[in-house]
Amino acid sequence: MGRSARREIPPSRPSFVACSEAGCRERAVVDQPYAGAHPCVAHFKASVVERARRELHRQAPRLKGGTLAVGVSGGKDSGVALTLVHRLLGQRRGIRLVAVTVDEGIEGYRSETLVEARRLCGSLGVEHVVRRFEEEVGSTTDEAARRLPGEIPCSFCGVWRRKVLNRAASDLGAVRLAMGFNLDDLAQTVLMNLARGEPGRLGQMSPHLEPQEGLVPRIAPLAMIPEREVYLYARLEGIPFDHAVCPHASRAGRNVFREVLWQLEEAVPGTRHALLRTREKLIPLLQEEGAIGSARPCAVCGEPSSNGTCRACAYRQALASVAPRSFISATGSGPA
Ligand code: SF4
Ligand SMILES: [Zn+2]
Ligand SMILES: [Zn+2]
Fold it and tell me: Which residue range(s) make up the domain with 307?
């Protein structure tokens, strides 16, 4: 969400470099140092589809039918995720695709991206549902940012969005919730959790490797596709998306991890993939150690929580403590 567009544009090539695929004489369109490859447009597009196909199969192996919810923001990542899920699964009998957009109430940002989300869903013929923080949480992100100046907006915004998406997917009866997280996003999250001394969170992040009580299993079809390749694919396929950057994004705690990871990937290609593999190796060990806590119902809203009160309700309570009583209820009769 709200990422900087820096480094998304593939470097221009000073001279002709041929595609690295055996027998192909076409011009290379992108460098993939982590794979020692530089495919042409056709081979690049095919490899994106293949990576998404493999991840869908790996993350949702027994998906025979049912509703598949896809979180769609109007940005490039979720646009590519929806397009690929629609292409790979959308035509299967018994599968119903529903795109879900969360409107956090961010002036000059979400309304623009919502236009693109609608456009994409319309062009694919995918059902589209919009959920608004104002109704679901009782506050917009902009309003909460004004009232909680000591908090980084992404902290509560991200927590609330996950909750609203999960509730929407659950209301739709979805068997999976597909998200547009790319390789960079997921590797950053692994690094953040390790750097903050919270390895238990490796088990809670997407994609879900095990079912989690009260949560529609989240999958990430773009898990093996770097951010700049997602951007390139969206441009090559003409997928509509908005370039807007969230006005709160500059305060996001993950920005420093993004920078560090770029440097690591440049120095040691394959670092992002290695971080994801590390996560998958660590999870069984952490489970054995009891370091991945099981969820219990939040005392306020009843949804899964690792503490007595879930983080979404804790942020609502913090907001209620500084807001007029008529503005928000902290005690949970509201939508949370
Ligand atoms: S506040 Fe943060 S989490 Fe929310 S939309 Fe903006 S960048 Fe994303
Ligand atoms: Zn080629
Ligand atoms: Zn709660």
Answer: 295-336
Domain containing residue 276: CATH number: 3.40.50.620
In testing the pocket of ligand 1, which one of 140, 246, 250 has its CB within 8 Å of the most ligand atoms?
246
Nearest CA to ligand 1 atom 5: 1
Taking the C-alpha atoms of residue 168 and residue 216, their distance in angstroms, rounded to an integer, is: 10
In a domain, 12, yes or no: no
* Residue-wise pLDDT tens digits, 194-210: 999 999 889 889 999 88
| CA of residue 179 to ligand 3 center, whole Å | 22
209 and 299 inside one domain: no
Would you say residue 29 lies in a domain?
no
- Structurally, how many domains does the chain consist of? 2
Write the DSSP assignment of 19-49 as a string of letters: -SSTT--SBP---BTTTTB---HHHHHHHHH
> Looking at the predicted structure, is the pLDDT value of residue 139 above 50?
yes
Closest C-alpha residue for ligand 1 atom 3: 154
pLDDT tens per residue, range 205-252: 999 988 888 899 999 999 999 999 999 999 999 999 998 899 999 888
| Amino acid sitting at position 287 | Q
**How many other β-carbons are positioned within 10 Å of the β-carbon of residue 204?**
18
CA–CA gap between residue 203 and residue 72 (Å, rounded) = 23
Cite the DSSP H helix spans in 60-149: 76-88, 110-124, 133-136, 141-147
